[in-house]
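User: Fold this; tokens only.

Assistant: Input:
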Amino acid sequence: MRLGDIYWVCWRELKKFFGQKARILMTVIQPLIWLLFMGNALTGLTSNPFAAKMIGVDNYLVFMTPGIMVMTSLFGSIFGGMSVVWDRRFGYLNKMLAAPISRAAIPMGKMLAAAIQSIMQVTIIAIIAMFLGVRIASGPIGFLLIVVIVFLFSFGVSGISLSLGAVIHSHETLMVLVNFLTMPLMFASNAMFPVEAMPDWLQAIARWNPLSYAVGPLRELVGIGLWSASIGKGILAMLIFAAVMSLVAARQFRRSIA
């Protein structure tokens, strides 16, 4: 598999993204709505000493910003498989499969494009959050680590979607399936609420949820600082997640028939 093949697939996906002004606008508006409405609606939680102790910070926006970063990345990446279904419908996937490139380069390029888009979204969210009074406690180095974690998370999530897109030919079916996956992934995680506030059975699910492994270190980097064992653990978990999903997506595309 040549890097040049991955580059051109990625470049095409990014050109499609930058050609859709409404989609770019939504990448700004969506996190702004979450932070302005959801973030401010729950700021009263920190006035309760018990809730504030469970959240771990005295500002709910500081707690919520990492969750919004990962959730936005989830929503953007989980629909990556839709591009495969549309490429198949318009015959473009047949052209790529017939081209002298590795089949594995197709999902890799699409996953890379999704991860780059997530980095852009996270940067926008960080800027909006700063205007709302959130400061990243770990500074510029911490922000770079946030970018790395979100990149790996997005890479892995888009791998799930692309693996499904390789075997599902109907965009309606794929849409239903990814929507079915998105809600449990979001609510059975620590993105919105601390795991300690959940019942035991949900805590068990949340502790194995990839979102929790991504949100945890981001929360440390935004609210506490740079030095924490959970940051290294989170990066390692995301690295394994991205690598496994890369292998799964590449395998599905090698076996797929347009």
